[in-house]
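Standup, Tuesday
Yesterday: got the pipeline producing structure tokens again.
Today: sanity-check two examples.
Blockers: none.

Example 1:
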Amino acid sequence: MTSTTPDAPSATPLLDWYDRHHRDLPWRVSPPMVARGVRADPYRVWLSEVMLQQTTVQAVKPYFANFLARWPTVRDLAEAPNDDVMAAWAGLGYYARARNLKKCAEAVATQHDGVFPDTEDSLKSLPGIGDYTAAAVAAIAFNRQAAVMDGNVERVISRLYAIATPLPAGKLLMKQKVALLTPADRPGDFAQAMMDLGATICTPKRPACSLCPFRGSCEALRLHDPEQFPVKAAKKERPVRRGAAFVAVTADGEILLQRRIASGLLGGMTEVPTTAWTSRADGETSADAAPFPAQWEPCGSVIHVFTHFELRLSIYRTAIPSRIQTDDKWWEPVTNLEAQALPTIMKKAIATAIPLAFAMPKG
């Protein structure tokens, strides 16, 4: 049963709304599926929740389908070559998630005999699983009464209670409210219903309050100002960092690549040679920093916005007759670039130097 406390409205209207208006998502076991006896697969729930962090549903759908097609079980993912996993993740961003995804799969396969643990605390003992993912998997996959709070839920709960404490300081109070509201039965459906409500009804701008199952209990609606919530602290100005990237191509159509160190920003991903820029410091921006002497021609620049800084790379290109031997780099056919673990910033850099690089037919 759902319950109502002096500090929480009943979850029943929301669950009734979810039964009628839930989104059909490839990783979701919907209420009609549950009625037919289908049960959530913890692997699919976990994989989707990791992918959805800081990423839209539409962006995640093809990646989720590709991962499941290649690695249908957590054991398959655990046994996959690391380079293959990073390449499959390329373009989805926040690459530490991919590294932790692989480590977590290995831990489940080796330490838990391929079976995900079913409590928040035990899930949090796995690599890369924090409070949010542990709560989401526990609730959705195992029907545990866990308080799940993503960005959509933050918006719903902040409006429902008119929480004026700015984010991120207000998160603790919001989670306490979510915990009070989460029912003992159907906690997984409740978590997904809150997410759907925030995504489709309680939107950042022009929320459809007249359609909301919580409209009779919403404090922000009573105050006639839902869009005021959640209150956000003033943003700090995003610093700008600079560097250079070097695109070398042979007469045979091969491009020079290297792998970034395993830890840190874009860790383990593939890149063209670049200068030593970081989120805290600029790198060299001139052709003097090229990986080998050649006629390096400037061919423009690219801008890429990371979470905490903006990166501006000057792009240089050189065409050489044949490969030059390098110790820590390799030459890859341009026609094979799509199979490489290239983050978006590197695809931008290559496309600036070779405009049709990602449109060339595979050899």
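Example 2:
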Amino acid sequence: MEKRVMTDGKRRKGLAAAAAVLGGVLVLTACNDGDTGGTGASQSGQSQAQVDEAAAQKTSKAQITIAPKNGAQNASINNDAKVTVSSGKLTEVTMTSAEGKAVQGEISADGLSWKPSAALERATVYKIAATAKDAAGLEAHENSSFTTVSAANSFIGNFTPEDGSTVGVGMPVSINFNKSISDKKAVQGGISVSSSSGQEVVGHWFNQTRLDFRPENYWAEGSTVTLKLDLDGVEGAPGVFGVQQKTVTFKIGRNQVSTVDVSTKMMTITQDGKTVKTIPISAGSPENTTYNGQMVISEKFKETRMNGATVGFTDSDGKGEYDIKDVPHAMRLSTSGTFIHGNYWGSRSIFGSVNTSHGCVGLADAKGAGDPNQQGAWFFNNSIVGDVVIVKNSKDKTIAPDNGLNGWNMDWATWKAGSVA
């Protein structure tokens, strides 16, 4: 048999021909979509447009808006969280903390908005999921997540007196902020204090953290005072925002002013301008005189402990010069430790005749604070927080206006100069 050998040139021609044939098959396979009419591309475009149009017709027209925006930081705990809708009505809104705790809220009667029922927690991540329907019954959905302002980035004002309380005519509105306030104007602008008596009320900054309000003269007896805190979102210092939004009201009781005359060692109590009682007292000794000035009762204790070491009166061993664990009927007059209180350990002969205390004003009383017939008990039972106690004729200086609730010791012009409103 003849052995035939294919040369390289013939092999190349054969491969090329095969490739051409295969290439033609491949091209035909890749381009032919089975449409022998030649109009496939046009029909495909129309089909897609129809699909898009149909999808659009099935999309709800309801537009949901959630505030704060997704990812927001330092959100208000009072006002920021809200869901609204246009071209539809809300059907369901859920709000939860990152830990899954549900937040109560209510969709408005018209179905156009939702908000939480109470203030949110600080430094907390919240998630909101909302659903709404348009007129055709088609649903729309929206989700958002945000973080409320942290404790480090917020401030609050601790205020006195308490909401709903009845206080004496000398009670100022005193607000102590837990952070230093650099923008006093912004903060004071978010606070208002008014009286049903029509008295002008002015604020005074004692320092970066304390703001007090009072009228020129004592509050009118029987009047109602209203404090409004609208500090939510107010920037009190760079990056530090207020979170409070509330209204507080309190009543002014009868006008009781008690005057302690250190020289005569007597106290005269007046109510609505009429003297109701005179009580012998024992004030600060010549070595430990009592402050002069107008002082306001800020706290009342049926019994309390008084230790000299807490106010600087110590023996050589560092212990208090006195430590009485059951002082009866004590009422605070200053932050620094001035009280008017009952005294059961002193001789009865000192009251009205000798000043023997470490700076307080003492009244005759009984151990245990259980005898209503004692002078100390009578004064305690007939006094309320906010009553004024005036000390005069002492050899000490006038008490500082910011030592307790004692701004009445500042003249009106100076007081008003401390306002930035």
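Quick observation on example 2: The longest strand covers residues 323-332. Helices lie at 8-31, 40-57, 184-189, 375-381, 412-417.
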